[in-house]
Amino acid sequence: MKLIQVSDTHLGEPGERVFGLDPAAALEQCVAHINAHHADAALCVVTGDLVNAGTGSEYAGLKRVLSRLAMPYRLIPGNHDARDALKAGFPDMRLEGKDFLHQSVETPDATLLLLDTHEPGKESGRICDGRLAWIEARLAESAKPVLVFMHHPPVAIGHQAMDRMPLRNPGPFLELLGRHRGKVRHVFFGHVHRPFFTVLDGIGYSSVPGTCHQISLIGMERGDLYASSEPGGYGVILFDGVRVGVHMQAFADAAVFDV
Ligand SMILES: [Fe+2]
Ligand SMILES: [Fe+2]
Q: What is the CA(157)–ligand 1 centre distance, in A?
């Protein structure tokens, strides 16, 4: 099974630029690259910060670009999103829950749990008791391996400024995953706008670059926070029922050579 992870698309109003970059043009280039090279993917998951301000017109713009994807897609809210506008913009997304937008997606090889960590007005994220109970029930009932997708990192990444806006109080969530170690194979997140990998308690964790601006590692121990124009990218996830493989693919024009 092949899955695509796209994250932190940060679409603004038409023509709006972010740190001098054009998020809509970047996402169009990303979608074209995915379609050209990974049209066989079963699903594309966009892991939050879909738009910048959470307006209906931003989500309409997002839908216009994502509708060109060759495969189905699913959306997860991030801190820049707004639940009501997201639900209104994508009424056919089968977003579960009245107060949160968790989604469970069955594939032949795995159950995908797409988690809503959004907290209105906050940069950090949260999994409240209700959201945790939903996850616990899905983990208990799934007979397949489980892949988890979410916006906020539940693990520290060692970048001080980003670690100040993580998933708050991750303990109960990590403890729940630990109880299902072996079933939970990997946790994919966004928010940090760069690739990161770690293993904790026998479970793999990774993030992907944003499609538009990135977060620089410059000054990471000092708590500095710089956006950067490093190349945007997306993740290509391979799962054979046993092993999870994660590739990072930049999508800006690049020459390729016969080897
Ligand atoms: Fe973001
Ligand atoms: Fe974020």
A: 15
Provide block-wise average pLDDT over 10 residues at a time, the chain (259 residues).
Answer: 98 94 97 98 98 97 98 97 94 77 95 97 96 97 98 98 97 98 97 98 97 97 96 98 96 86
Residues near ion ligand 1 (Cβ under 5 Å): 8, 49
Residue 204: predicted pLDDT? 97
Q: What is the pLDDT of residue 218?
A: 97
Domain ranges in the chain are: 2-250
Q: How far is the CA of 124 from the centre of ligand 2 (A)?
A: 8
HEC profile of the chain: CEEEEECCCCECCCCCCECCECHHHHHHHHHHHHHHHCCCCCEEEEECCCECCCCHHHHHHHHHHHCCCCCCEEEECCCCCCHHHHHHHCCCCCCCCCCCCCEEEECCCCEEEECCCCCCCCCCECCCHHHHHHHHHHHHHCCCCEEEEECCCCCCCCCHHHHCCCECCCHHHHHHHHHCECCEEEEEECCCCCCEEEEECCEEEEECCCCCCEECCCCCCCCCCCEECCCCEEEEEEECCCCEEEEEEECCCCCCCCC
Q: CATH assignment of 2-250?
A: 3.60.21.10
Expressed in angstroms and rounded, the spacing between residue 72 Cα and the centre of ligand 1 is 22
